[in-house]
Specification:
The protein is built from 19 helices and 17 strands. It is an alpha/beta fold. The protein has four domains: 145 residues, Rossmann fold, CATH 3.40.50; 122 residues, Jelly Rolls, CATH 2.60.120.10; 162 residues, no CATH class; 55 residues, no CATH class. The strands form five sheets. Strands 2-1-3-6-7 form a five-stranded parallel beta sheet, sandwiched between helices. A four-stranded antiparallel beta sheet has the order 8-15-10-13. Strands 9-14-11-12 form a four-stranded antiparallel beta sheet, with no helix packed on it. Strand 1, helix 1 and strand 2 form a beta-alpha-beta unit. Helix 14 packs across helix 15. The termini are far apart.
C-alpha cells in the first residue's frame, strides 16, 4: 500500500480498464483505485482515509448518467484527503460551459477529451503528480523522480537542500558561539568515525609530535578535538620561532590542504592532543555523508578565516602605531646633526610601509564585503565548488600581458558571444578547452549571473594574494632595515621580474585607478638578482611617475 492514491471514475468499464492499463507504470508508487459511480467513489474515499492515505489525482468523467463529474470535482476540496488532489476532467467532446464552471470553482487542473492517446495522457499525469508531490515536503522526492518529471523534482530537491543549508548556516551564525560551534563539528565528526574509522582518522598524539613541516608538502587537514598545537616559523638564520598557539576547535594545515601549496609553518603538539586527520578523499566523504555537517564546517572555516583576518587587522594597527612612532622619532632625530642620516632612513621606511599597509586595509574591507556575498551566494553546489577552484587559482595566478589577455578574450568571444564575459573568463583563467566546455558552454543561458557570482570568488582570491604580497613586502622592508643596521647585503637568487612588477602594481592599485596601465611582458626566464632591491626600483619609478 502506497501513501498516495490515484482515483479513476467513469461509468464505462472499458474506459476504467483503459485507465488502469495506461497508468500501470505509476502503480508501484501510487495505488490505482477505480469506481463507476460517485457513490462507489465516496466509499473508496472513506477506505482511503481509514488507511491514512491521501488522494494525489482524480480522473473523472463528466457524464455519469444522472450524476455530474464536475459537481464531484468541485466537492473534493471539502475532504482533507482530497483537498490538494490534482483533478482531470474526461469528456467525450469539448463542453466549454462545464469546463469553465470547474475552472471558476478552482477545481480543474486539466481537461482530457476521449478517446485519448497514451503520449498525451502519460506526460500530463506525470506533470500533475509532480506538482502534487512537490507540495508534500515530508516525502522522499527523489523516490518519485523515477516515474515523474525528474528534472523538476531534482531541481526542487537541490533548492530545498540549499535552503536548509542557508537556514542552518544563518542559524549557526546567529545563535552559536565559536566554542559551541567547534563542539558541534567535533561531535559530528566523531559520530561519523565511530561507525567507520578504517583509516584511523581519530588519533591521539603525545607532546612534540609534528603535524606539518614548514616548506614541505601537506596533504592533510587536522581538526584539533582536544589539546594544544604551536605553530613555528624559521628566520633567515634557520632559527625557529613560535608565532601562535591554537587549541580545541581550530584547524591546522588548512591553507596548504586547500591550495596544494607547501606548509607555511611547522605545527607541533605541545600537550597530549586529540586530532581528526582528514585527507582530500576522506574530507569529501565526510562532507557528503551528513547534510548537517556541511553548514557547520563551512561556518567554522569562515570563522577561522575571520579570526585570522581580525588578527591581521590588529597587526596592521600595531604597524600604524609603529609608523607613528617612527615619525615621532624622525622629528626628534632630525634636530640632531649626528643622527640626520638615521632620520632620513626612518622617513623612508615610513613612506615605504604606508603603501602596503594601505593596500592591506583596502583588501581587508573588500574581503569583509566579499565574504558576505559568498555566504549569500545563490549558486548551485557544483558552481560553488567551481568558485572555490577559481579562488584558489586567483591566489597564485601569474599575470597576463594586456596584449595576451586581449588576444585570448577575442578568441573566446566568438564562442561565448559576449565580449565582457570573454574578458572575465580570461581574467579568471577559464579560457582552456576543458573549462570552456564543462563550465561555460554547458550553462551558457545562465552564464552572466554565474560569472558575476564567480567574480566574487576571483576577487576574494586576488585580494588574499594581494594581502599576502603586501604583508611579505612589509616583512621584507623590516628585514631590509635590520640588514641595513647590520650592514648585511641581500643575497642574490633566481626570481621572476614580472612578478615583482605585478606585485608593485597591486600595491599602487588605488593610485593607478585613474590611469591606463598597459602591460607588455616579454617571455623572460627567471634571472639571478636581488628581488627586494629591484622592487624598490619599481616602487620609486611608479611613485615618481
Amino acid at each position: 500500500m502506497n501513501s498516495f492514491v490515484i482515483l479513476c471514475l467513469d461509468d464505462d468499464p472499458t474506459v476504467v480498464q483503459q485507465l488502469q492499463q495506461d497508468l500501470n507504470g505509476f502503480s508501484h508508487l501510487f495505488d490505482i483505485l477505480t469506481a463507476q459511480t460517485i457513490a462507489d467513489a465516496y466509499q473508496i474515499l472513506v477506505q482511503v482515509a481509514q488507511n491514512n492515505q491521501t488522494v494525489a489525482m482524480v480522473l473523472c468523467d463528466n457524464d455519469l448518467g444522472n450524476d455530474s463529474g464536475i459537481d464531484f470535482l468541485i466537492q473534493l476540496h471539502q475532504h482533507p484527503i482530497t483537498e490538494q488532489a490534482r483533478t482531470v476532467l474526461l469528456n467525450d467532446k469539448a463542453q466549454l460551459d462545464d469546463i469553465m464552471q470547474a475552472v471558476n470553482e478552482g477545481r480543474l487542473n486539466y481537461c482530457l477529451t476521449k478517446p485519448w492517446q497514451s503520449q498525451e495522457l502519460l506526460p500530463m499525469v506525470a506533470k500533475e503528480l509532480t506538482s502534487y508531490v512537490l507540495k508534500h515536503p515530508e516525502v522522499d522526492w527523489l523516490l518519485y523522480s523515477q516515474v515523474l518529471e525528474h528534472r523538476r523534482i531534482l531541481k526542487a530537491h537541490i533548492d530545498r537542500q540549499m535552503s536548509r543549508f542557508r537556514s542552518r548556516f544563518i542559524q549557526t551564525t546567529e545563535e552559536v558561539n565559536d566554542e559551541r560551534l567547534a563542539q558541534q563539528v567535533s561531535s559530528a565528526l566523531n559520530q561519523f568515525f565511530a561507525q567507520n574509522d578504517e583509516t584511523k582518522a581519530r588519533r591521539t598524539y603525545s607532546p612534540g609530535h609534528i603535524l606539518t613541516t614548514e616548506g614541505q608538502p601537506n596533504a592533510f587537514l587536522w581538526f584539533i578535538s582536544q589539546g594544544e598545537v604551536a605553530l613555528y616559523k624559521k628566520d633567515e638564520q634557520n632559527k625557529q620561532h613560535e608565532v601562535v598557539r591554537v587549541g580545541a576547535g581550530h584547524l591546522v594545515g588548512g591553507m596548504s590542504f586547500m591550495t596544494g601549496e607547501v606548509s607555511f609553518s611547522t605545527g607541533i603538539t605541545r600537550t597530549a592532543t586529540d586530532v581528526i586527520k582528514l585527507d582530500q578523499q576522506l574530507f569529501t566523504q565526510v562532507m557528503n555523508s551528513q547534510n548537517e555537517l556541511l553548514p557547520l564546517f563551512t561556518n567554522l572555516l569562515l570563522r577561522n578565516f575571520n579570526r585570522r583576518l581580525q588578527g591581521s587587522i590588529q597587526t596592521e594597527m600595531k604597524l600604524q602605531q609603529t609608523l607613528q612612532s617612527l615619525d615621532d622619532a624622525y622629528h626628534q632625530l632630525i634636530d640632531k646633526e649626528k643622527m640626520a642620516m638615521l632620520g632620513q632612513l626612518v622617513a623612508g621606511v615610513a613612506h615605504e610601509l604606508n603603501n602596503p599597509v594601505s593596500a592591506i586595509l583596502r583588501g581587508s574591507d573588500t574581503l569583509k564585503e566579499t565574504i558576505i556575498k559568498l555566504t549569500d551566494s545563490q549558486l548551485s553546489l557544483e558552481n560553488q565548488q567551481r568558485g572555490n577552484i577559481i579562488l584558489q587559482q586567483a591566489m597564485h595566478s601569474r599575470p597576463l600581458s594586456t596584449s595576451d589577455a586581449r588576444a585570448k578574450a577575442k578568441e573566446l568571444q566568438s564562442q561565448l558571444g559576449d565580449r565582457q564575459l570573454a574578458r572575465k573568463a580570461v581574467q579568471m583563467g577559464l579560457d582552456s578547452p576543458e573549462f570552456l566546455t564543462d563550465w561555460l558552454l554547458s550553462q551558457k543561458k545562465d552564464l552572466p549571473q554565474v560569472m558575476a557570482e564567480w567574480d566574487n570568488y576571483y576577487q576574494m582570491g586576488n585580494f588574499l594574494r594581494s594581502i599576502n604580497v603586501c604583508a611579505q613586502r612589509i616583512a621584507d622592508l623590516v628585514k631590509s632595515l635590520k640588514s641595513y643596521a647590520r650592514q648585511d647585503d641581500e643575497s642574490q637568487h633566481m626570481a621572476n621580474i614580472h612578478e615583482g612588477i605585478e606585485d608593485t602594481l597591486i600595491i599602487f592599485d588605488n593610485k593607478l585607478k585613474r590611469n591606463t596601465v598597459i602591460k607588455n611582458y616579454a617571455n623572460l626566464p627567471e634571472i639571478c638578482c636581488q628581488p627586494i632591491a629591484l622592487q624598490q626600483v619599481w616602487t620609486n619609478l611608479i611613485a615618481n611617475a
